[in-house]
Structures are given as structure tokens and as C-alpha cells.
Amino acid sequence: MKEKTIKPAKENIKKISPADMFITGGLLAIVGGFLDAHTYILRGGVFANAQTGNVVLLAVNLAKGAFYQASYYLIPILAFALGVYVTEIIKTRFIKIGFLQWEHFIILIEILLLFIVGFLPLSVPHGIVNVTISLLCSIQVNSFRKIDGIPYASTMCTGNLRSCFESLFKYTHHKDRQALISFFKYIGIILFFILGACIGAILSKAIGHHSIWFCDIILISLFLIFTKR
């Protein structure tokens, strides 16, 4: 009798998209933290990323009757909303062109606009810069939503903090090891955001408006990672 050879079962290895890798989330979090610090220090005390602060400041000024000042905070909020719409257009129209995926186009748009913003001196009205950066942050956070299958935000920390300690609870009370892994991933993203904000504060004070080109260095590195995968 012929011996039957048993072929080893092939392992189902799920390929992770470059957009969903932890390194992608970390680098984008650095950019997010940097831009928040940059606009707050140099561009009129506005948070370009997290719109909750701008909404509160809008409401405070409306309550005081300072309508002109209130409109100043309305601008980045509207720009953020526009960014969501623009992202969906890019996802629909530019699914794939050659080796480029729609995520490549998102990164290229960020690189180009931040490069232009780096030339704008502080004498340029802050609203112009804040609108541009709010638009970019909206596009970024709406485009890159997951790392290794877990939801996250690269331009703000509130949701990440909530998910972080929710994961810790699941591990301590239900012994869910996957939840522990998620906990450390969220901690990593938050630390990258803090790192970006620290770098943003230091470089913004030392170099001024040109410091925003640091984000381009990060984004170019990310584009190269996307291209090689």
C-alpha cells in the first residue's frame, strides 16, 4: 500500500494594509500632535485638530456677545467638516491609479499643502493657515481609522484614552489577552501624539512657521513605507 502523504495545512496569514499598520498610526499621531501645538503657539491659539475646544470657545464668545471673535473659531470647524466630505470624494474617485492607492493621494495632498503653509509668514492671517490645517487634519483622521483592526484617532486623544482604559478593564476583569494588546497599542499612539506635540512646541518656538516642514519629513517617510509594501 502506498503511504498517503499528508500535506501541512497552509496557515491563513492575513496581510495588513500599510494604512492599518501600527507604525502608520504612530507617525500620523506625531503629525497630529505637532500640528495642534504649532497652531496653538503660532496661529492664534486655535486647535486645528480637536474641534471640541474650538466649539467651546465658539460658544463662550457667543455667550459674551463677541460675535466677531466667535466667527474666528467657526472657521476651523467648518474646514474640518469640509475635510470629511473631501475625503469621501477621494475614496470614491481615486481608488487605484497604477501602484497608487487612494491612501497615497491623501498623504501627497498633506505633504503638498503643508509644504506651502511652511512658506506663509506669521503676518499672513491666521485664519488662512488654520483653515488649511483643519482641512488636512480632518482628511487624515477620516482616512486612517484603524491600526491592526482596532479603531483610533491620529489627531486627538480623547477617544484613544477612552478605548485604552476600556481595553484595560476587559483584560483585568475578563482576562482578554487581546484587550491587553489593544491597551498597549493605544498607549503607544497616545505617547506618539505627546511626542509630536512636544516636538511641535520646541520647533515652533525655535524655527517659527518653517517648523511645519517637519511634518512633511514624517509624511514623506510614511509615503515611502506605503510604496514599498
Question: Characteristics of this structure?
Answer:
229 residues; two-stranded antiparallel sheet; 4 strands; 3% strand
Give the arrangement of secondary structure elements:
Blueprint: H1 22-42, H2 51-64, H3 67-93, E1 96-97, E2 100-101, H4 102-117, H5 126-143, E3 146-147, E4 150-151, H6 158-174, H7 177-207, H8 213-228
Antiparallel strand pairs: 1-2, 3-4
Helix pairs in contact: 1-5, 1-7, 1-8, 2-3, 3-4, 3-5, 4-5, 4-8, 6-7
What this model shows, in words?
- By secondary structure, the protein is mostly helical.
- The protein has one domain (19-228).
- The chain is 70% helix and 3% strand.
- It is built from eight helices and four strands, in the order H-H-H-E-E-H-H-E-E-H-H-H.
- The strands form two sheets. The chain has a two-stranded antiparallel ribbon with strand order 1-2.
- A hairpin with a 2-residue loop joins strand 3 (146-147) and strand 4.
- The model is unreliable at 8-13 (pLDDT under 50).
Give a short summary of the structure:
With 229 residues, the protein is mainly α. The protein is built from eight helices and four strands; from the N terminus they run αααββααββααα.
The radius of gyration is: 21 Å
Low-confidence stretches: 8-13
Structural class: mainly alpha
How many strands appear in the DSSP assignment? 4
Write down the overall geometry.
Answer: globular
Q: Give me the side-by-side strand order of the main sheet.
A: 1-2
Mean pLDDT: 87
Helices and strands, in N-to-C order? HHHEEHHEEHHH
Give helix % range: 55-70%
Residue fraction in strands? under 5%
Total DSSP helices: 8
Through-space gap between termini: 48 Å
Overall tally of structural domains: 1
Largest sheet: 2 strands, antiparallel
